[in-house]
């Protein structure tokens, strides 16, 4: 019996040690993707043009004219963070301001198709940031939306200071969508009127659980638990607290949910979790048939624009009544 207990103790210790090491590996693997930052700008320029041809020329031309500008502020955790901003195509009749938030391993350049949609088609002023660790923003890890929401809340004030609008929409894709949903549960200025989330995950825990299974065919315990503890010790947050669902439960402002039903990266099932979690205020959703992850606009550009415009027009109408 004594030998059996000793063996059990050794097996348990080895299991825990393996889980701890695997947890450290996963934390680095997931939260410190490479390349990133300045090293990754060229790749993302190509990606922006693949999603909507001519995007980087449009961006470069507006920058050359002085219409599109860069700005830097000190963000959460005291890192320098970057954003670009551009006025509406017809500033005198602008309908408001949009903040467009990019996804995991991307930066402000990738979702130029949304910036162009808001500026050129919907006539909104636009601010589009680099989240910490990406693009021109400094940071020591990908914050997966949780602390990013606090940086976006700083950008809300900056955008309002630039454009002085009384109507603002936050629109994010993938990790950017999670950022938007996580911000939606915090106290925000009254002029933040609406949110659009496109294929965001229900929580960091749920997303990493899927990734761990799909990429490594491993169960969440003990690796994910260990990785979350490592993240908490290093960066101050854990995977389960970084929850879109918990924040949506506190959101009472209008939100449009978008998800492709062929998405297997952020599984389509997350749409229902997120949608059901928001129990107060107006909400709507659109399922993009056959669209894979972050592909709804590329697959259905005109319908995407129409869905977003229709949603925002309804929110405008609700606020004016």
Describe this structure in words.
By secondary structure, the chain is α/β, with parallel strands linked by helices. It has one domain (32-203, 242-320): 3-Layer(aba) Sandwich (Rossmann fold). It has twelve helices and eight strands. Helix 4 links the parallel strand 3 (97-101) and strand 4. The radius of gyration is 21 Å and the shape is globular. The N and C termini lie far apart (77 Å). Residues 1-19 have low confidence and may be disordered.
Give keywords.
single chain; 321 residues; alpha/beta; Rossmann fold; eight-stranded mixed sheet; 47% helix; 15% strand; globular; disordered N terminus
How is this fold's topology laid out?
Elements: H1 2-31, H2 41-51, H3 55-65, E1 69-74, E2 80-86, E3 97-101, H4 112-121, E4 125-129, H5 148-163, E5 168-173, H6 175-184, E6 192-198, H7 204-216, H8 223-235, H9 244-248, E7 255-260, H10 269-277, E8 283-288, H11 296-299, H12 301-320
Parallel strand pairs: 3-4, 3-5, 5-6, 6-7, 7-8
Antiparallel strand pairs: 1-2, 2-4
Helix pairs in contact: 1-8, 5-6
